[in-house]
Every structure is written in structure tokens, then in C-alpha cells.
Amino acid sequence: MPNHNSRVLQGSSERVQIINDDKNFTSDLSTQIERWGLRDAGFNYNIVAVFGSQSTGKSTLLNRLFGTTFDVMDETKRQQTTKGIWMCRGKGMSVMVMDVEGTDGRERGEDQDFERKSALFSLASSEVLIINLWEHQVGLYQGANMGLLKTVFEVNLGLFGKKVQDGPQSRTLLLFVIRDHLGVTPLSNLQNTLTADLMRIWDSLSKPPGLVEAQLSDYFDLMFTTLPHKILTGEKFEEEVARLRERFTIKGREDYVFKDVYHKRIPADGVAVYMENIWEQVQTNKDLDLPTQQELLAQFRCDEISTAALVEFNEQAKSQKRPIEAGKVVEGLGALMKNWRDQALARYDRDASRYHQGVYSRKRLDLHATITSTLSSLFLGQLKNLHKLCLSAFKSALHATLSGNGTDYNFGDVVGKATSECETRFQAGGKEACIEETEWSWEEELELLREEIANVAEVFRKDETKKMVNLIERNFKRQISEPVDVALNKATPDMWDKVLGAFKQLLERAESSYLKKAKSFNCTEEENETALGSLRIRAWLALRAKIDELTADTAILGKLRMHFEERFRYDENGVPQVWKPDDDIEGAFRQAKDETLALVPLFSKISPVDSSLQYTLPPSPVNATEEEFDFASSLVIFSESKYLDLAARFRRDADAYFVEAKRSTVSSIAQ
Ligand code: GDP
Ligand code: MG
Question: From 365's CA, which of 13, 268, 416, 624 has a CA 20 to 30 Å away?
Fold first, then answer.
């Protein structure tokens, strides 16, 4: 759209020589079209060209009609001014006006070549060709203009002869402007003469096969007008020109010249490239195949437009690349990506959709694919990061609950809640990041995440189960200590019954507390069996450890000594014995010693009076570590030799008491 800054306003009156004297195409047209403010006009612009002999007032006419600034011949010098082809923007109009170097009937040859080339060039792009001629040239069938028209018709047949779908439109308006009209011959007569000449020329053309029947009216619309003498009737000339101008400016008029049907459908931003290509083909005398030219133009421009659309897109996509590579989950990435993509496609569509539809669609698919693949790596990165985030949130949730308050939770519930939170979060993130018109999916990643959280939960579960079993074991150890102490200190014949009774009761309590807890851990039958088996063995080992502690050498000797002393040094009332010479010291000594020695076998093996108690503990060594555990041998507390050793050591102690007792009677006699 035209920008109303001074430079462009100034630019709008600039002209450019698109083909110079050496028949080279300018490299400035593209920039110039932009400076004219027409680059973004799409199809909302028109192209008109003028043809005619030299110095017939063509440039003068164009400047009057379009407010252009083409050079006009200086009256006093009378030399050719317009060389090659010039272009200017119509003042206040979206029109590109081409002033084409005139041909002179007197100088043929070289000129004819340029005439042909410029005709091809103009027909391929212009909607309206103004054919400028003097009134006195009308009817001169052999005149210079007729040669020009023959050329125009011929090249037109070559260009637009075969109608191709999707190709440029083939209709062109020929506007005959008859200059220096005296008024003696009415326009209608001039028009008839000219039309008859045109028909004659058309008929005389050798037409390519398949086009023999083609009519002039299949390709051209004809329009005629006259202008009075500019010098002799200056005022009238200006009036008529002003009226003629209305045919170019007032859309509603019936004789409006820029009808849609004449438009060559080259988007304004492609005009420069298109014209340059056409000129190159014309120059190298190649067959000018316009549909191909349009396709080539479309390819070139659609690529350019696509690249431009990608530049901004890449800039946007890059902004999130770093954070994602750094492991960040970008909030609202899906919406961002969709926005970038839609913007890029909209930029492309805006400019490219005017070009050859096949090419436009093909390149759009390419662009879409490029964009999708760039976004796809962001998407995959985001999923990966989301996966990590959800997994670590899952771990933290388990940690927070489990490491806190001991046993006051249901493990299954904790895991179930954390799992569903984790999955919900991932699904929401995955859905957000996945944009339509892609084949992306987050479901497989969710499956992977599910597996991982299941593994993590399993590790936690095993740990927690272990912790729980350890806790139960610790409680058991604490509780078993006292009843064993009490029982072994009394050393009654049923002391093992008491010990095993307490053991059985505490073990049952431990087992039921395990089973209650195991439910919330979703433990399997097999795990329960293993855990219970190991719990039983560990409970038993704890019991044995306690027994070992109480039956260590010094401990057991202490017990024996105490037992003996209670019988030998104190009477039945617990009063210390004072031996008199008549007392049966030997008898008492032997009895106390024998009774005490009888304890040694009682301590040496766990053997309850009620033998059913002995089988409280089923020997079930399931765990590898406890494999060597042999229940039967664990009932034995002293070996035979240890037994003899303890008995011998006790005897020595007892003997010492006997000697001491004896001495006490001797000393009492001595007093
Ligand atoms: P071009 O070579 O066809 O572009 O012709 P120019 O526009 O340069 O004009 C050539 C000469 O013809 C100039 O001296 C103009 O003043 C003069 N001229 C322009 N228009 C007319 C016209 O309508 N009638 C006559 N007789 N001379 C004209
Ligand atoms: Mg001129």
C-alpha cells in the first residue's frame, strides 16, 4: 500500500528505462515498483503500452492521459527522444505506463527486430495497447503502422494461440487513437477503414495449424477514438484528451478500458521478474511460452515469499529453542507454535496465493513441512522435558508423604494419587503442545512415563515394605527382651514354656501387624510369604540373641552361683545360714550342688515341657540369606563340651563355698 511519506510521493513520479538503447533490461524495476508504491497492489493495478511511428505525439499523449513525465521531443530540434522502453506510474493511478520507442517506416531492418520484440514484450504484460497514428495514415494499407499491426497479430498468435488453462489471459484491447483529426471524415468512416485493413491483415497471416479458423475477435477488442490537432486547436485537444482520460479512470463507464478480462494476472510484486524473464526469452529468440513463464515466475516468487515468511518464523521459533534445550517446559508452547505457523502461512498466502495455483499449493506444502519439522523438534523437546518434570514431581510427592509421618499412610493410595496427578499433568501438557495438522502424538511418551513411574513406585514400595518389616522387627526385639529375662532368671523347669509362649504371642502380633500394613502396599501373596518367613526367622534369631546374651559364660555362671547360694547359704526363709559343727554341711552342700547342676541341662537346650510349643516356629527358610538356617540346631544352646566345662567351673566355685562354710564352723569352735 502506498506510504504517504515524501520519498515515496517523490518516487511516484519517477520514470525508469526498463529496456535501454542496447536492449538490456534494467535491474531497477523491482525497486522502482516499490518506490511507486505498487509492490503490494496484488492484481489491483493495470499496464498500458503505446505503439506508433516516431514523433507522432505518443509521449505527449501519455503525459496528458496519465500525468507521466516521459520525454517529449523539443519542437525546435526534432530528433527522436524515446529510445527502448520507458515506464512510469500514472499520477494518482495504479497504472504502469510503457512508452515504447517508435518505429519509422523509412528505417526498416534493425527496427523491425526491435518492433517485434517490443510487441511480444508488451502483449505479454499489457492490458491495453494504444495504437497511435495520424489521421492521414489511415487507409495507407502499406504504411508503417500496418507493418507494426501485422507484427502484433503474428506474435499474439504465437503467444496466446493455444489457450492453456491457468495461463495468462489472452485478450487485449487495441485502442486506436487517431491524431490530428480534421473532423472532415467522421470517426465511423475512419473506424470502418481501419477495421477493414485489420481484417485484411489478419486474413493474410499464415496461421499455425489448428488456428486456421481463428478470428481477430477471438483475441482482440478494438476501440477507436480521435484527437484534434494539438498545435492548431490546442484548447479542443486538451478537452478531448481529458475526456479520453476518463476511459482510464472511471470504472463504471461502459467504455472503461481496464476490464478484468484484459488483465494478465501477474501479481504486482512479480511484474519485474516476469518482465525480465519475458525480455530475456525474447532477446534470445526462444519460443515464448507464457504458461511456462508464469509457472517459472510463480516458482521464483513463491520461493522468495516462502523464504521471507520463514525468516520471521525462524526468529520466533528460535526464541524457545534454548529454553527447551536447557530442559525447560515452556508454558503454552502449543499456542505459541500454532500462532507462529499460522502467521507464517498467512504471510505466505497473502503474497503467494496470487501466483500459479499449482505452484502456490505445492510450495505451500513445502513451507508447511519445513515449519512442521522445525516445530516438531520443539514439540519433542517439550515432551521430553515434561516427562522429566512429571517424573520428578511424582518422586517428590512420594518422598514428601512417605518420609514424613512414619506408618500413618496407605501406600497404595499415596501411589495411586501421585500417579494420577502425574499422568493428568503430562496429558494436559502433551495435549497443549500437540497442534493440529501434524502427525504428532504424546501417547507413546505417556506410555514410557507410565512405565517409569511404575518402576519408581515399585522401588519405593520395596523400600517401604523393608522399612516396615524392620520396624516390626525392632518392636519385636524390644518386647521379647523382658519376658525372656524374667523367665530365665527364675530358671524353673517350665521356663522355656514361658519363653516360647511369649515368643509365640509377640510373633503373632508382629505377623498380624505386617499383614495389616501389607494390604496398603499391594503386596503379593508370594511377597507376603517371603516377608513373613523372613520375619519369623529374624524374630527367632532375635530371641536366640537375647537368650545367648543371658546364657553367656559369666551370665550363666552367675545364675548358677546365685541358685546355689540361695540353697546353700540361705535357709528356706532367706536368712543367711550360720553353720554349727553338728550341721550336715556335706549333705546340704551336695543337695544344693546337685540341684544347681541340674539347671545346666535345662539351660543347654530350648525344650519346653509342653512339647507342642517346640514347633511354634515352622522352619521356612525362603530367603537366600536365611537358607543355612537350621531350626533344630538353633534349639541347642550349649554343646556337650561346653556343658561339661560350665559344670566343672561351677563345681570349683561351689567347692570354694563348701570350704568357706567348713572354715566358718572351725572358727566358731575356736571362739
Ligand atoms: P513521440 O516521438 O511519438 O513520443 O512524439 P512526442 O510526444 O515527442 O512529440 C513529437 C512532436 O510532436 C513534439 O514536437 C510535439 O509537440 C508534437 N506533437 C505532440 N502532439 C501533437 C499533436 O497532437 N499534433 C501535432 N501535430 N503535433 C504534436
Ligand atoms: Mg516519445
Answer: 268
Task: State the ligand closest to the CA atom of 79.
Answer: 1
Query: Rounded to whole angstroms, what are the CA distances from 582 to 165, 364, 577?
Result: 148, 129, 13
DSSP of 618-638, one letter per residue?
-----SSTTTT--HHHHTB-S
The answer to whether 306 and 349 have CB atoms below 8 angstroms apart is no
Cα distances (Å, whole numbers) of residue 534 to 214, 355, 439, 480, 542: 105, 81, 53, 17, 12
Single-letter code of the amino acid located at 473: E
Distances (CA, A) of 84 to 46, 104, 331, 632, 658: 21, 14, 61, 121, 149
Q: Is 57 annotated as a binding residue?
A: yes
User: Which ligand number lies closest to the CA of residue 58?
Assistant: 1
Distance CA 273, CA 277 (A): 6
pLDDT digits (tens, 9 = 90+) for 371-406: 999 999 999 999 999 999 999 999 999 888 777 655
Find the 396 Cα to ligand 2 centroid distance in Å.
86
16: β partners: 87
Ligand 1 mutation target, pool 15, 56, 180, 226, most atoms within 8 A of CB: 56
Q: Evaluate if residue 1 carries a pLDDT over 70.
A: no
Written as one string, the DSSP assignment of 589-615 is HHHHHHHHHTHHHHHHB---SSGGGGG
Q: What is the ipTM of this complex?
A: 0.99
Name the residue among 551, 549, 469, 477 with its Cα closest to residue 511.
469
Q: Is the dihedral of CA 541, 542, 546, 552 positive or negative?
A: positive
Look at strands 95-100 and 85-89 and give their pairing: antiparallel
More confident residue, 664 or 275: 275
Task: Collect all residues with Cβ–Cβ distance below 8 Å to 91 and sequence separation of at least 6.
Answer: 12, 13, 66, 67, 68
Q: Region 265-273: what's the mean pLDDT?
A: 94
**In the predicted structure, residue 528 carries a pLDDT above the cut 90:** no
Ligand 1 mean position, distance from CA 230 (Å) = 8
Q: Is the pLDDT of residue 492 over 60?
A: yes
The answer on whether 467 is annotated among ligand-binding residues is: no
- Tell the residue number behind the cell numbers 503454552, with chain if given: 332
Joined together, the cell numbers standing for residue 440 give 504428532
Lowest-confidence range among 45-59, 252-266, 621-635? 621-635
Q: Tell whether ligand 1 has an atom less than 6 A from the beta carbon of residue 425.
A: no
Q: How many residues does the chain have?
A: 671
Ligand 1, atom 16: closest residue by C-alpha: 75
**For the residues of 89-131, what is the DSSP string, one character each?**
EPTTSSEEEEEEPPB-TTS-THHHHHHHHHHHHHHHH-SEEEE
Indicate left, alpha or beta for 276 from its phi (over 0: left) and psi (-120 to 50: alpha). Answer: alpha
**CA 504 to CA 532: how far, in whole Å?**
14
**DSSP string for 320-385:** HHHHHHTT---TTHHHHHHHHHHHHHHHHHHHHTTS-HHHHHHHHHHHHHHHHHHHHHHHHHHHHH
Q: What is the mean pLDDT of residues 53-78?
A: 88
103 lines ligand 1 (CB under 6 A): no
Residue 632 or 311, more confident = 311
Pocket lining: 57 vs ligand 1, CB cutoff 6 Å? yes
Alpha-carbon span 426 to 387, nearest angstrom: 7
